[in-house]
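Below is how a single chain appears once it has passed through the pipeline. First comes the sequence as given, then the structure the pipeline wrote out for it. We keep one example in the README because the format questions we get most often are answered faster by looking than by reading.
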Amino acid sequence: MTAKATVTEVRVLTGAALDAALDDVARLRIAVFRDWPYLYDGDLAYERTYLESYRTSAGAVLVGAFDGPRLVGAATGTPMEDHAEDFAAPFAATGLALQDIFYCAESVLLPEARGQGIGHRFFDAREAHARALGRRYSAFCAVQRPADHPLRPAGYAPLDPFWRKRGYAPLDGVIACFRWRDVDRDTQTDHALQFWLRDLDTDIA
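Resulting structure:
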């Protein structure tokens, strides 16, 4: 059994600290997203290329959760227009301008570090960053899987109640499509990801 990790600090990483953490963030993404529902069979070379954008985007944020010196969780976000090529089409019919939206990308936390309220702290930090950038909305997307998928764990509880508690709601028909290789596949396949949105001017209960 893996020993429980106690998160001793959650902080926003910038500059040299951000740069130094990116390989650890890549490893976290590979480990956490390998599990349901993403089933992502990742590799470090791709992850390093993907995370390079956090060095180059002036509006990007990286929030790290630490057990002492060890990074056990991370959450990222960027201005939505940094992903215009991927997200412009799904948002085209909504009437929302990408420049008004902050995109909360991944939120990954090792299983042994869960149950300490870190998910809320990750959203708090990214939403505060979004407001500081003058954004009105915060959004993220989550993979959709069929209820009868053979790798779905028994008793799996989706995160929808947590997201709704944070003030997010799914945007009807706003679906992104990404390709990756699942752990049970030999080749990459398309995956649908549902967008959720929150108005940052509205208080949550």
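The domain at 9-199 is CATH 3.40.630.30 (Aminopeptidase).

See the next section for the split statistics.
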